[in-house]
Design goal:
The structure holds 2 protein chains of 2 kinds. Chain A is 64% helix and 3% strand. Chain A is an all-alpha fold. Chain A has 13 helices and 4 strands. Chain B has 12 helices and 4 strands. The N and C termini of chain B lie far apart (47 Å). Classes of the chains: A mainly alpha, B mainly alpha. Chains A and B meet through helix 5, helix 10 and helix 12 of A and helix 5, helix 10 and helix 12 of B.
């Protein structure tokens, strides 16, 4: 079982080759204009949704905490990072010419600092909010986190009156955010998020996190500090959401409080459930499928019938849930993401769990 | 913080009483929606997000009953000998009953199509389906062929009169809402604690497999629970539309969510809890809109929820949760 694999920066060589190949193919399609600028934005939106949903999958899929607060952390990350680049991006400019390419190192640096700050702020809020609230169980935790999302939305509506950020313009929407998200950065950060999540899950920390989902009382009896691991996964999930929010803010260069309406906080939940709870592969695939199909409907439907988008979409939701309640990919993982040494199948008492149901199918 | 009001407003007792009365009105409307939420959750442990949209359908049904069918003046036309006061009361009752029946049928269809096939699936699947149903009802209703996506002005079935009692404006709508809500709560208590159906409902909520073994038609009970809850939401929709006469297809989202929060606040699955929780929500909303800032009303209502859940993790009237299965 313990096969040593060649690894590079925490991921197998094959994974890196695959990621670079995907990046290159899509980049070539962009450069040759096979994919329009509009679809390019949609694909980047897919990356953003994949990152938020990976964070939620850690909280809900792997740790079993039903959280609807992901969208609030996303909003915090988006507004915080947008505010930094709005203030400082115009002041920093270090043009670099490498011969084959030119880019502005100053802008990239400020972008990375901003999204890192947004992510860390979201993580900090997740820690402070999670400390008391994670003690609640099940649905009550879900409702408390939903309340959190709504409070964040109300604050976003009032950034200029209650909070001292007039440049966020409250309910009118924040404009003038520099467009710094490129295809490279959204893809690279997604790959980074996948690798970090996979490596967390494959460590003893990851096994502790999963054990909390499987049976919290038994985990506690085995000496696992369940509160610590619940907080940890909640904070990491919050960081992921904040990071995605930062990428999103610099992708569309426009933030409006209605983007953070609590109804939207179900989007990552839908993606996670579709992809399969506790499946990294499934989450990433479902995030792209979600973004592409919602926008694809916009293209397929004749003009004037866009309203039908949200009639076809719920019917699709219903059909997929009826046909595959365990999600499209269940617990299937591909290649490098595959769980290698989780011994819990040995102790399987035959009780159906989401995870094993999917793995047997794979 | 108190930038909305001139000085001295904090100690104005008349204004305070006015906010309280407005809060009571809102709270009783929430109570009607919240009772349906709490019953459905108590039995199938499903957060029925489509409930708020059933409420919206109730409001729109009454809009058409009044605008197109002129149902509220029908008794006066049929029996001209009736005094106008009695005729309009009967007409309004007919409008409410029509909305309740439409919502009931809608809820039965939703339950059969969307929730029943998922009864044995993971609970999250039913939740996602509920969100799907909610989207469907909203966006299907917003098609120009069905309702409309714009705000429409509601025509009240009777004349709204308000009286000034000690400086506080109290309208007949407020009184009607309070009376109807209390009537429905008593009716519901009678159904749940006084009839065979209620006994079956309580048995189902305790333990579905055992209830089935004891000869309870579990599926039938669940359908009836959905139907009763939807009927209450329909009545709530009509009363809400009369009190706040402006309709839009998305009007069910926020009241629906707040009614659900009220149910959680009181301890979900508990009828009295839903009622008390709704009254608290109504007061929290109106007082925070009045004394702090109107846009903060949602934030404060939810902050109260989070604080209550921190102190009593299963709501005010909730029983402590058992060990996790």
């Amino acid at each position: 079982m313990k096969k040593r694999r060649l690894e590079f920066l925490g991921a197998s060589w094959l994974f890196w080759v695959g990621a670079i190949a995907v990046y290159a193919v899509i980049q070539v399609l962009f450069s040759t204009n096979v994919i329009t600028d509009y679809m390019k934005t949609v694909i980047q939106l897919g990356c953003v949704m994949a990152i938020v949903s990976l964070g939620l999958n850690l909280i809900y899929g792997f740790n079993g905490q039903f959280s609807l607060g992901q969208w609030g952390f996303y909003a915090i990350g988006a507004y915080a990072s947008a505010d930094i680049t709005y203030r400082y991006a115009a002041k920093v400019s270090i043009p670099l010419d490498l011969g084959f390419a030119t880019f502005d190192a100053g802008k990239i640096a400020i972008f990375l600092v901003a999204i890192a700050f947004g992510a860390l702020l979201a993580g900090l809020v997740a820690y402070l909010f999670g400390l008391p609230v994670l003690k609640m169980g099940g649905d009550y935790f879900g409702i408390a986190t939903l309340g959190f999302t709504i409070v964040v939305k109300v604050l976003a509506d009032n950034t200029d009156t209650i909070l001292p950020f007039p440049e966020m313009k409250g309910a009118r929407g924040m404009v003038g955010i520099p467009r710094l998200t490129t295809w490279f950065w959204s893809f690279f950060l997604l790959v980074l998020c996948i690798i970090i999540l996979r490596n967390i899950l494959h460590s003893s920390t990851g096994r502790a996190i999963v054990s909390v989902r499987e049976n919290e009382i038994a985990a506690k009896a085995m000496g696992i500090d369940t509160v610590k691991y619940k907080t940890l996964s909640f904070v990491i999930g919050g960081i992921y959401a904040g990071l995605a929010g930062g990428i999103y803010a610099h992708l569309y260069a426009f933030l409006h409080p209605s983007l953070f309406h609590f109804i939207k906080s179900f989007d990552p939940m839908i993606i996670v459930v579709f992809g399969g709870l506790g499946s990294i592969t499934g989450t990433v695939v479902a995030a792209f499928a979600w973004a592409l199909s919602l926008e694809g409907l916009r293209i397929i439907l004749p003009s004037g019938a866009e309203a039908w988008r949200y009639i076809i979409y719920p019917i699709g939701l219903l059909l997929i849930m009826l046909l595959r309640p365990q999600g499209l990919l269940g617990g299937i993982e591909w290649g490098f993401l595959k769980p290698i040494e989780w011994p819990r199948r040995k102790f399987d008492t035959g009780a159906p769990s989401l995870e094993t149901a999917g793995q047997e199918a794979g | 913080m108190f930038i909305q009001h001139p000085e001295g407003v904090l100690i104005n007792p008349t204004l305070f009483a006015q906010y309280v009365v407005d809060g009571i009105r809102l709270g009783f409307v929430y109570a009607l929606i919240s009772l349906g939420y709490t019953m459905v959750y108590g039995i199938v442990r499903l957060i029925n997000f489509a409930h708020g949209d059933v409420f919206m359908v109730g409001a729109f049904t009454s809009f058409y009953a009044i605008k197109a069918m002129r149902l509220h003046v029908l008794p006066a036309q049929l029996f001209p000998s009736l005094s106008p006061w009695v005729a309009i009361t009967i007409g309004t009752v007919l409008v409410i009953i029509l909305s309740m029946v439409v919502c009931m049928l809608l809820a039965v269809v939703i339950e059969r199509v969307a929730y029943k096939p998922l009864r044995n699936a993971p609970r999250i699947a039913a939740l996602i389906t509920a969100i799907g149903v909610s989207f469907f009802l909203e966006y299907f209703s917003s098609l120009p062929e069905v309702f409309t996506s714009n705000y429409i002005i509601y025509e009240q079935p009777f004349k709204v009169v308000s009286w000034k009692i000690l400086g506080v404006q109290i309208s007949n709508v407020t009184i009607i809402i309070i009376l109807v809500s209390i009537l429905f709560l008593l009716l519901l208590r009678w159904i749940v604690y006084g009839t065979k159906l209620g006994k079956a409902m309580r048995a189902t909520s305790w333990d579905k497999p055992t209830a089935r073994l004891m000869g309870v038609d579990v599926d039938g009970v669940i359908t009836k629970t959905f139907a009763i809850g939807a009927a209450l939401a329909g009545a709530g929709g009509v009363l809400y539309a009369i009190a706040y006469p402006q309709l839009i297809v998305f009007m069910g989202i926020m009241p629906g969510l707040k009614a659900f929060v009220a149910a959680v606040l009181g301890g979900i699955g508990n009828l009295n809890g839903a009622f008390v929780g709704s009254l608290i929500m109504g007061q929290a909303e109106m007082l925070s809109a009045g004394y702090i800032l109107t846009p903060m009303r949602d934030a404060i209502a939810f902050t109260i929820l989070i604080i209550v859940l921190l102190i009593r993790p299963t709501g005010i009237f909730g029983e402590p949760e058992g060990e996790k299965a």
